[in-house]
Design goal:
Blueprint lengths: L1 H6 L6 H14 L3 H9 L3 H12 L7 H17 L3 H9 L3 H7 L7 H15 L18 H12 L3
C-alpha cells in the first residue's frame, strides 16, 4: 500500500513524500522488508519522486526538497539488498538524478542521502574482512561518487 501512495501524486503530494519516508523507515535493517518493497515495484516510484522534485523547475518548494530527501533516503536503504541495488543501477535515470542532488540545491539532507545512495550503489556485493588485500575488493567511495558525477555532467 505504501508503494501505491508514493506513486499517487508526486513531489507536490504530502502523502507521497511521507510514504517514501515510511518505506525507508520500514526497510532500515530489514532485508525481508526491502525485498517486499522491491517486489511490490517500489523502486521506480521512488526514482520518479526524485525526478518530479527536480526536473524542469526554476524554483523549488519545501515539498520538492522533502521529496528529494525521502526518495534518496529510501533508495539508499533499499540499495543494501543486492537485487534492489541492481534494479536501481539498471534504471536509466537513477544515478543521474541522485548525482544532481549533490549540488546542495535541494538541501543538505537530500544531498547527504543522495551521496549515501550513490556510495551504496557502488559498493561490492559483500564486504571481506579488513585484511591486507581488502583494497582489491572495495571500490574507493570517493571515486564512486566522483565518476558518477562526471558521467552525468554534475562536475
Amino acid at each position: 500500500r505504501l508503494v501505491e501512495l508514493v506513486k499517487a501524486g508526486g513531489a507536490r503530494s504530502q502523502i507521497a513524500r511521507h510514504a517514501a519516508a515510511t518505506l525507508a523507515r520500514v526497510a532500515r535493517n530489514q532485508p525481508a522488508h526491502i525485498a517486499l518493497i522491491r517486489e511490490a515495484g517500489g523502486i521506480k516510484p521512488l526514482i520518479d519522486l526524485i525526478a518530479d522534485s527536480i526536473d524542469d523547475k526554476w524554483a523549488f518548494t519545501e515539498g520538492d526538497m522533502q521529496a528529494a530527501q525521502h526518495g534518496a533516503g529510501a533508495l539508499w536503504i533499499l540499495a543494501a539488498e543486492q537485487e534492489a541495488k541492481q534494479a536501481i543501477n539498471d534504471h536509466q535515470d537513477a544515478r543521474r538524478l541522485l548525482a544532481s542532488l549533490l549540488t546542495g540545491k535541494m538541501g543538505k539532507k537530500a544531498e547527504g542521502n543522495a551521496a549515501g545512495a550513490l556510495l551504496m550503489l557502488g559498493m561490492p556485493r559483500s564486504f571481506p574482512s579488513w585484511g591486507s588485500d581488502a583494497g582489491s575488493y572495495m571500490e574507493d567511495p570517493v571515486s564512486v561518487v566522483t565518476v558518477t558525477m562526471e558521467q552525468v555532467g554534475v562536475v
